[in-house]
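In keeping with the milestone schedule agreed at the kick-off meeting, the structural modelling team has produced records for the first pair of proteins. Each record is given below as a sequence line and a structure-token line. The laboratory manager (R.T.) confirmed that both were archived under the project's standard naming scheme.
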Amino acid sequence: MAHILGVRTEIDSVLSVLAPLGLAAAADPPSLLIDLDPSGPAYPSRRSLADLVSDGPTRAELTPGSTGMAVLRNGGIEWREAVESVHRLATSWSSITLRVGLDDTGLPWPVIPVVPLLPGFLTIDDGRPAVWQTSERGQVAPGPGPLLPPLGRRVVHQCLEARSIPRGRWVRGWRQVWELPWP
């Protein structure tokens, strides 16, 4: 059974695209990123979550390779319609990362907030554990949870060009997220 974690980023739309890729790249392979947000980005994938729910999973989706990372874009479906399909995929994959939109009430998996540390008073801290994304060196997390190093230009390009699995210090920072107990 797969280890499943959701991530949500509320105030940074670029980070909301990159954070799930970082978490999925840091997971035990084979790793699958599923976008549960119907208004999410057009991640590159042959099929979408909507296709999978409508037509059922293919043999390849249920028997992933032993290494690497796969991405399943949303395709315009609400997460509530896909819960059964995610459970079915969880029997085959080692790790599943869920990109969650703002509507995650009732989601049956842990959802981790990803909070960018912005300069000055702009950082939001509601006291809950989060993954804190630094924007410059030397920043300190204002609340509980892992602190990620600043995103480098190379990693951003790797994520957005989707030619290879992102690597580097930023992705290694995500590994600790898989090891923590999230509510």
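The second protein of the pair:
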Amino acid sequence: MPAGTSKLLTMERHVHQLYRFIKPARLRLHSTHWTNRSIRAKLPEPWIVNPLQCIESSFDSLDLLDSHLIDALITEGIQRPADHDVRYSIFDLYQSPVRLVTAPDSVLALETGFSPSDIGQLARITPQSYVCNQAKHCARQLFAENFSIPESRDGHAVKANLAWSIPTFSWVDPHAVEVDFGIDYSHRYVESLVVLKEHDESPAVHQLVSFLRSSFLAMAREGLTIAVL
């Protein structure tokens, strides 16, 4: 596509976005997979959210925001723009601890007291399919930094599959079991709402922020281990 055509298409999308905010009507929110599951049935008008079948890892969500295809974005921590990025306004929603989980029939779920070396020997990190590509890279890096992975691994040995998880992942995989490895892992996950700077004063945006924070606060009161920001 010629560069001029692409620029014209972006301008047309911008005009359509301005119309959606002015009306307001059918404002497009893109959400993380796990939060999508919890809010989609209660999302206030004029907001609509992406289908659950839309896998996050297949594209860069910030590109959708920049090109005016969506009007707001709930980010994973790794996707959150920097505070000094003048293109966006960021509303942090909640933070939560990060845990290591496995399948309920895994050897790591059936015993306790594993050392980091044990986990490096017995397991491999397998990020969830629905997380973004940046988060998958981060998951592998965190695993390598925290566990002693043997330099020479037996390719024929069966390794337990592990994933980094946060409390809200339980909506997606309620059967995952936390792995006990005796370390208080201090990393914290933050989920945020991101909009283009020009729309941060929109009543619809502030309505959405209020709804999201109220929803997460209700979840925290029900026992979910999250802290609303």
